[in-house]
Amino acid sequence: MKTKSMIALAIIITAVSLAGCGKSSTSQGDRTANALASYVAPGEKDEYYLFYSGGHSGQVFVAGIPSLRHIVTIPVFAPYPGTGYGFDEESKKMLGDFTWGDVHHPALSQTNSKYDGRWLFVNDNANNRIARIDLRDFKTHQILGPIPNSVGNHGSSFITENSEYILCATRFSVPLPKGRVADPKDYEKEFNGMVSGIKVDPQTGEMKVGWQILTPPFDWDLGSTGKGPSSGWAFWTSYNTEMAHDVMEVNSTQKDRDLCAVVNWRAAEKAVNEGKAQMMDGVPIIDPAKVPGVLYFVPIGKSPHGMDVDPTGKWVVAGGKLQPATTVLNFEKVQAAINNKTFEGDFRGIPILKYEAVVEGEVPVGLGPLHTQYDGRGFAYTSMFIDSCIVKWKLPPWTDEEKKDLNKAVLDKVPAHFSTGHLVVAGSDTKNPYGKWLVAMNKLSAGRHINVGPAQPESSQLIDISGDKMKMIAESYTEPEPHFAQILKVSEIQPAEVYPKEENKDPNAVWDKDATGVTRMGNQVVAKLTAIRSRFTPDRIDAQVGDDLTVHVTNIEQTRDMIHGFGLIEHNINMVMDPGETKTFHIKLTKPGVFPFYCTNFCSALHQEMQGYLVVWKPGEGPTSAGATGATAQR
Ligand code: RUQ
Ligand code: CUA
After folding, report:
1. Ligand lying nearest the CA atom of residue 371
2. Residues 79-107: pLDDT tens digits?
3. 481 alpha carbon, closest ligand
């Protein structure tokens, strides 16, 4: 979203008036009331989880609401020594060849358009992946991708009403399939974008690529999925309907309207089942020009960004980045226009719905509207990047007076600091939002915090939306860089307290001293250890230079939060095992020496004593026979 021109514009405007929506002043009485509203006293707990995407940190941050305190980081696309993520074999395999990702839009799993508390899905814009976090343990359990024929997985991850699919659209177009090369000068002819349906297993949450819809080379932007009357549909804005390939900030902003996508995903699924797809790189691809009814376009002004379906499923609101208004589509009119073929032409065989036939109105919310959220009481809240504020406005149906002048539908503005990107209202994308809280995720904090040098943190602000007027309550800072977020009521999930011993299916788990030890087969050395306060058993591993060493560590605690780590000196290894968990690492031993290993997670009064030795003998030296090396541990 941070295009140079918008940043430049924002900086200019920020300099002129730091608060585009007027000044906020807080009286002593308000300060006290606001402090109390977000105060969670020692020993008390927050009411909601806030799951922030972590942007190019590759992670997901969990904070509490109303305190806005950061509680935990869930590593997803980048190693995180804090939980040992990316060091053991399983998480290393999930990360593949990548050590970072760009997380944008988290989506909680839904059943019947309500959060069902099972999974959180997040997309990686950079390496075209989707990850699944299980809310039972707040850990990443699957990373799917890179998705074939998909480049720039930004318009993602939008979940359907019953978590049937994660829907994704490409930000970038390239010659397809991946690996084919063409000159960007031939962009219009040779490049394509794609909409992907990622199928989610209803029992396990396991994702696989279902099908894809080939699109013209527009840059797809943000989207959302339908419900109620728009059930089975999904929507994306686009920028670059101009199909420019260079000097984008000028060349892709020529037209007053860009074409947004209206996708019938159930029709796409049906077409694939009926054999109407062609395979490309192992995926069934639908050409929407040949399969009518799957894709339609609708023109929206100008370089739009967010496109958000309201809780009733009737209104779809697009933010016009470069137009000072949000455009409200009426899905019933969209449906009628499709049925009556009220088109204003086509683009490469894809019908373009007539703008006047499907738009309910353009609401003059102000400068730089990006994303819109809903409280379920008929009100919409739009983030304003340039005006730096949140605008509350009324959804249709509008009175005649409001229709004549939609300024009258704009009800309230509250300044945000500064340049708001996404915002989230609790439960906005469900059919029954919780309402009450809104969090503005601001791109600039502009020194509102203690000085931390040239780079400044991102700012988040908590706004109470329960009354007629919005109330700015609190602010906090995060690491780079929250984009979207999801809010879930704490009482709706019951995360596990430990991994029960009987559920540990790892074939290399050991629970008894007798099963621990070190064995050798040729140059393969395998150590099976237990960890419990405050010792590893065995606490000595002997091997030789040139050996392949595999170490399995089982934390045999069954007490919550009794976590042990396994850090190995000078070998870049740090595993962390939760109670009942087994983890494995594998290394080739290349240097002789005695390398202490130790518990990295402070676990007990004798945590420091929780240590042992990896003795790497020179070739031909030291104990080599099976069974000999673990003997010292069997005390
Ligand atoms: S984008 S600031 Cu990645 Cu969600 Cu709109
Ligand atoms: Cu175990 Cu520290």
Report:
1. 1
2. 999 999 999 999 999 999 999 999 999 99
3. 1
